[in-house]
Amino acid sequence: MLRLTALMTTGALARRSLIASALPAIASCATGTGLGWRRIGSFQPSDPDRPPSRGFLTGSLVQSVAWHPDGQRIAVGAVSLRPFHIFNLATGEVIRIPRSQTTTNAAAFTRDGRYVAVTLHRRSPSGPIDYGFTVCDAETGAELHVIREGLRPGLTGGAQAFSLSPDGHFLAVLFSRDRITVYDTVTWSVVSAFDTPGFGGVNLAFSPDGTVMALVGQRYRVLDPRERFPLVLWDWRAGREIRSIGGLGQFVLSRPAWRPGTTTIAVGTGSLLANMPDGITPAPRGTPIARVHLVEATTGERLQSWVWPDDEASAKDVSWTADGSMLAVAAGAVDGAVRLLAPGRDAVAGGIGVRGDIVHQVAFSDDGRRLAIGQGSAVAVHERLGA
């Protein structure tokens, strides 16, 4: 029987000295939270070999934001032909992963900050597309390892999502929706590899104790819309499904985010056409629809749901602070809203208004003091005041 250890939140943040950024600071308030936020910098990935592109159809949207453990550097990937970038907030330095990186969907730093894993999807000189992922030096961007082991024969598609285990020993990689491979981060050898038959994964995450893998996606050939997009828990060492938690929404859009030190998971949902809780009946415009759910992994019980009107945006991404006291939600609204939620409070606790394009990504730094917001084709970084 797989162990799901219930842990208590420590309630304390690891304090780090943060170098004062030389980038322009723009005031931005978070109402109702008791804490203010200020924008300390922004970054838009660019490729000197290609002209700048704009808009959704050109594929320039930021799809991956990953913090370095030092809280100063961010890996940014856009769905485009641009390479991955590592941006240093303190110095303004930008490191580009080699130009051969073409489609960049996911990234993850190792726990010691020495390496960064990024999606590999590039065309070789002979024509075929090379799949897998690559491990690069976080200081220089130099490619050190190209990892293809663990891919099923005939599999096409690069790594779609990464999750680093809490102890930093393992990196889980989701390949082409229905293949998960777990690697040792020292030897980069395969520790576990399994398929998810009948289920197409979109994103995944290790539990805080590292024993369970949470996976979100879609069950194929399932007619009931309430069960078509579940949160599924896996014993990743045995490659065995433990529990499926349905009824969360027409689409589960965000990564599964384990609340630190607990066995509860937050997921963001949405729909192309907002429906009532039965998943079938169309909802009148303005009807409050659940967008973020907090569920208990050990029982499948839904502990709390946050709602807002159906004519507002879906929850495209979620991220916890290190102490689990606050959840940031990429609301995906046209006004660029980032909602801040607090467990135990039904109402939205606050938010950060960032005008411009739709917000697709949110990520707290390890110490919880900085929040990276992927909006359109750029990333803005906000810092919490009074923390």
In short:
It comes from Falsiroseomonas algicola. This protein has 387 residues and is an all-beta fold. It is built from no helices and 30 strands.
Describe the structure.
This protein is mainly β and 387 residues long. It folds into two domains: 60-185, Methylamine Dehydrogenase, Chain H (7 Propeller), CATH 2.130.10; 196-387, Methylamine Dehydrogenase, Chain H (7 Propeller). The chain is 0% helix and 44% strand. It contains no helices and 30 strands. It has strands at 26-28, 37-43, 62-67, 73-78, 85-88, 94-96, 107-109, 115-123, 129-137, 143-147, 159-164, 170-175, 179-184, 190-195, 199-206, 213-219, 231-235, 240-245, 251-252, 257-258, 264-270, 288-296, 302-309, 317-320, 327-330, 337-341, 350-353, 359-364, 370-375, 378-384. The strands form seven sheets. Strands 1-2-30-29-28 form a five-stranded antiparallel beta sheet, with no helix packed on it. Strands 19, 20, 21, 22 and 23 form a five-stranded antiparallel beta sheet that branches. A hairpin with a 5-residue loop joins strand 7 (107-109) and strand 8. It is globular. InterPro entries: Host-pathogen_enzymatic-act, Quino_amine_DH_bsu, WD40/YVTN_repeat-like_dom_sf, WD40_rpt. Pfam families: WD40. This is WD40 repeat domain-containing protein. It comes from Falsiroseomonas algicola.
